[in-house]
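Hi again,

Forgot to attach this to my earlier email, sorry! This is the prediction with NAP bound. I've pasted everything inline since the attachment limit keeps bouncing my files.
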Amino acid sequence: MKTAFVTGGSRGIGKSIALDLGKKFHVVVGYSVSNEKAKEVSDEILNNGGSSSTVQINISESESVDKAFSSIEKEHTSVDVLVNNAGITKDNILPRMKEDEWLEVIQTNLTGSFYTSQRAIKLMMKNKWGRIVFISSVVGISGNQGQANYAASKAGLIGLSKSISKEMGSRNITSNVVAPGYIETDMTSFLDDQNKENIIEQLSIKRIGKPEDISNIVSFLCSDESEYITGQVIPVDGGLTT
Ligand SMILES: NC(=O)c1ccc[n+]([C@@H]2O[C@H](COP(=O)([O-])OP(=O)(O)OC[C@H]3O[C@@H](n4cnc5c(N)ncnc54)[C@H](OP(=O)(O)O)[C@@H]3O)[C@@H](O)[C@H]2O)c1
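Structure tokens for the complex follow:
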């Protein structure tokens, strides 16, 4: 059975991705601090007849990434699918943005995905097969007020993924980006009903997205059937960016 590693698999979009990939792969559910939530996701996969384990990882620290990958390799010998889902926000308008807010978001969202992708690719190259999916955001394409750090990190993932696709295509390793719009998770829990109504007004499909809207396309991009799709950016946003 192939192994899929989902960073930030303990909650929100990552949880939905982990549960869906659990139908086909051994899923390693990555978490930063929510060990109990990650265990619940892993248990749900097992209860559904799948195979799963959890691993603690702080993607912003290379030593932590090395430790997590070493433990996955020890148990499963390879990582065939990597979903770079973990991410954070530290919103502020640019004139007020502190250097720490900039650096922390870039270090976690962009550099963290560099660490994990580099480790995973070395394993995928040996097997001449691999699937990498980055969870970016529509704001990485269009920018957003108060999110210069986050938008820059998410735009950076697009360049990273496209470069991987060119370097690795001949080895059957694909790399793609999914760019969600507004999805109902802890990350967007600050939105009140009025905020939500304002967002829905801008959408073609008149509802806020669900984590499943993202996991459906991610599962396809991790499958054999998607082998001729690489270097792409796929917005899943209810028509926000058409
Ligand atoms: N929700 C949206 O509307 C939306 C829209 C566009 C893009 N996205 C992107 O989709 C991804 C998932 O978002 P979400 O809404 O599901 O977020 P969420 O509910 O806030 O969950 C974030 C996940 O990332 C993990 N994480 C945070 N910092 C980490 C670190 N340093 N190392 C490892 N794991 C870390 C968390 O682990 P713990 O549980 O252990 O803290 C958690 O599993 C993010 O990359 C986000 O930017 C979300």
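Strands lie at 3-6, 26-31, 51-56, 81-84, 130-135, 173-180, 233-236. The mean pLDDT is 97.

That should be everything now.

G.
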